[in-house]
Every structure is written in structure tokens, then in C-alpha cells.
Amino acid sequence: MTVNEDSFTNWKHREEIAESMIPVIGKLHRERDVTVLLHSRSLVNKSVVSILKTHRFARQIAGEELSVTETMPFLQALTALDLGPSQIDIGMLAATYRTDDRGLSVQEFTAEAVAGATGAGKIERREPRDVVLYGFGRIGRLLARLLIEKAGSGNGLRLRAIVVRNNGSRSAEDLVKRASLLRRDSIHGQFQGTITVDEANSRIIANGNEIQVVYSDDPTTVDYTAYGIKDAILIDNTGKWRDREGLSKHLRPGIEKVVLTAPGKGDVPNIVHGVNHDTIKPDEQILSCASCTTNAIVPPLKAMADEYGVLRGHVETVHSFTNDQNLLDNYHKSERRGRSAPLNMVITETGAASAVAKALPDLKAKITGSSIRVPVPDVSIAILNLQLARETTRQEVLDHLRDVSLTSPLKRQIDFISAPDAVSSDFIGSRHASIVDAGALKVEGDNAILYLWYDNEFGYSCQVIRVVQHVSGVEYPTYPAPLH
Description:
This protein is α/β, with parallel strands linked by helices. Helix content is 32%, strand content 22%.
């Protein structure tokens, strides 16, 4: 057999294993509310090729590739356990099993590693938590996709309603247009599933989920209990109200908490999941998920501050253009944003640097920031220039950030890539808050410059969903537990 034939046979064998993984992963998700991960990347509803690519991409600290032949035994071991709702990382299981010298079988090792998800200590399945989207623009539609995806197990979060402006176009045609925008996206592709419109009842039905479309210009006029909605989390995607007084208008019958997808003002807590989400008080009814850029820079900033200390820093964001800019030169209340977005680089302000203090109050370092909008529709990069409290080396920082992305509590927020030819479009659809570009990292003495890619639409939306899961009580534990 030639080398090429051997490689092809090996590929077909791994392809066969990946194909057999799909029904097992699906059954664990539907019947037990278990999300199977591979180094923090969900394998639920993934294709054969996607599963193989995820294994190819997810590397161990030593840089060794992970194969489905290694992870499949751990997946099979999970099916023999009485599991409760949880997230189980078979990549972490396989990696830690490699270094375990106790002679345990895969079944014994798996049972021990996920013990918290079994037996008397396991979480019982709960009723889904109602969610309402107020606003259905770029972020609103991506949140809808994620919420519909999360509903696959029948538990967790359940999208019940979408509130849109009552601009006089309340008609079957309006409903069809909104459904079409959910079905097709020029950046993020086709919706994975089926979408139909119930014109008579003003509903969009996505993958069997009935979503009420409510038309209103005034949040104080909506009674959500009229639609059978109770104790819901309302996610405001409009940014129209950003202080406690304005956001309190959403606290109507049927709504228990309000989450803002923009930086909050005044005493509204700004939350970056993975960093300060555990500071949310149980009785807090109004909170903000800060901005996409704040979510991108705060986790790696924390990782660097914890290990090296940070004396001061500056963040420069090269940000994709957004809907608040003009396609062609026209009047805009902000001078530069009135200039054509697809034809220019546009200097603008960013509040991300000042928001760091709210998410990391223990960080005393002064962080400044600025931003340039550029002619790409999605994915941005933050250049984080830090003066550290001690000198280090480039390799040490690389090893630290790689470890953080694989094994720390921040592994869902921070990703790591070493591809030498990576460009912005490679990160469309990333579910991490930011991705460390290893090749671009610069370190000299006590100065470190991090290049952090982030999908400012989808990655941020994933962070919002994590916060909503946390405040809803449906953020299930991950096994094996991340290293601290």
C-alpha cells in the first residue's frame, strides 16, 4: 500500500468513527441535556467533516493532534453513566487520561472525572426558561439562532417572543421578511433547520419552536402574560435605553430580568462572562453584557494580569463597520461616521477601555483605548499593548495563553490559533470572546502586545447567551472541571 493509499484509508476510518459519534452526541443532548464538547467547542449538531476538523484544530498543550480514535471511547463511556444536565469535554478527558498513571480503564476514569454529573449530586432536569428578544437586528437574529439551537434538548432556554417596532407595516409581508432575515444571513450563512410563518397568529416557527412576534414602540404597553410568558429574561438589543430607569420599562407582567446587549450606564452592572458573572446578585433584575470589544479584551487582560501583573495598557481596535454608519456620505450626528463605511477607514471612539474597570475592579492599571472602523462586514481585531509588572519571554507568554485557552476557567472565552496565514474571515462564526493570534504576538522585556481576533457579532452573542444561562439557573457545570 502506498503512502497516499494509507492516508486515505486512515481518513476513511476516522470518517466512519466520526459518523458513529453523531447519533451518540445527539441522544445525550436530547435525552439527558448533556452537551458534548471538544476543548470547549460543542459537537452537538455537527457534521462528520466538522467533527474531524474540530479534532484537527484542537491540539494539546504539547501541540499533539487529537484523533477521534482517542475520544470515541470516552464518548461511549458516557452512555453507560446516569448523567444529569451538564457539559462534558471529551477532549479534556482524553488529554488528562494520557498523563494518568493509575492504570484505570477508560470507563473508570470517565466515571471519576464526571462524578459530579451522576448519582445523588447530579442536577435534575428543569423546565425551560422563557426568553424574549426586544429588537431583531444583527445581534437579535443571532441570539435567536443560538436560543433555537439551545432548545434542542427541550430544556434550558426557550425563545418565546420577539418584539419589533410598530412602524405601520404590521402585515403578513412584514412577518415573512423578518422570517427571511432569520433564515438567510449574508455573513453567517443559512439557518440550520426549517422556518415557517404562521400569519394568522403572528408567529415564526423555527425548528418546531413557536415564536410570537409582538409589535410595539413602547415597552410599557406590552403584557407578556397574554402570550403565556412568565418569569422571562428579556434581552434588549436596541440600545435605546442603557440606564436603570430606561431599562426598568421592560419589567412588565411576565418579565423577571432584563439583559442589555450594549454597555450599561450608571449603576447597571457590566458583565463579561467568565470574568465577573459570578458577581451578579440573585435579586439583580437589570444588567448589561457590555460591548463586543470589552468582552474581547477583558478575558485575556485578566489572564495576563493574573500571571504577570499589568501596570498600564492601551487597546487599539480595528473594527468592522456596523449599521450605525452610512453606506454613502450623508448626515450623521457623529461627524466621521457620516462618511461612507465600505469606502473608508473611520476613526471613532470606543468605551471598551473605560469599561475594563467595571469588569475588573481589582485591576488598578490605567487602560486607554481608541478604534478604527474598516470596510469589512464582520470580525474585528483588538491590539492590546501592555506594560507588565515583570519581564518575560515570548515563548512563556505563548505557553501561558495556550494553557489558558485549553484548561482554564476562561477556555470558553479565549481561543488560540497558531496558523501563520490567518485572516479576519477565518474567524466568522467563532464562539469565543476573542482568539489569540500566536504568530502576531510580540514580547520584549516587560512589554507584551497581543493581537486578539473576535467575531463582534457571533462571538459576542455567545457571551450574551452564557450570561442569560447563568442568571436563568441553566448554566450547567463542565466536566472535567477547568484547572485554576
